[in-house]
Amino acid sequence: PITPGELLCLGSSLAFSGLFYYMYRKKAKVVARIQEAPKLQVDDNLPALVSATEGRCLPYVALEGIVLPAQAALTSHYHEGLQGVIQKLLLKEHRLIWNSLVRSW
């Protein structure tokens, strides 16, 4: 005979397993897109390429080339000799506006 406590534990275990599998699949898709990202060179053709894309945005791109830091290079706390720079940072804010006539976002 199965007790109600065992059924509760089994149900919650299945619910959590389903939730974690969903989160895993969602993150796996993002990782796959990042791994398949095109590699572009930092040169004079890059701004024209970005302007030609839909929405003027490249979702996942690996940039290769020499860039100069604005101030000092960033150093890694975890790996010695690993450095990086932030050449330009662009932040876009998307806002949802409530439309009371249509009652939608």
UniProtKB/TrEMBL annotation:
It comes from the Eukaryota. GO terms for biological process: protein ubiquitination. Keywords: Ligase, Membrane, Metal-binding, Transmembrane, Transmembrane helix, Zinc, Zinc-finger. One of its GO terms (molecular function) is zinc ion binding. InterPro entries: MDM2_MDM4_MUL1. The chain crosses the membrane at residues 6-24. PANTHER family: MITOCHONDRIAL UBIQUITIN LIGASE ACTIVATOR OF NFKB 1 (PTHR12183), RING-TYPE E3 UBIQUITIN TRANSFERASE (PTHR12183:SF6). This is MUL1A ligase. It comes from Pachyramphus minor.
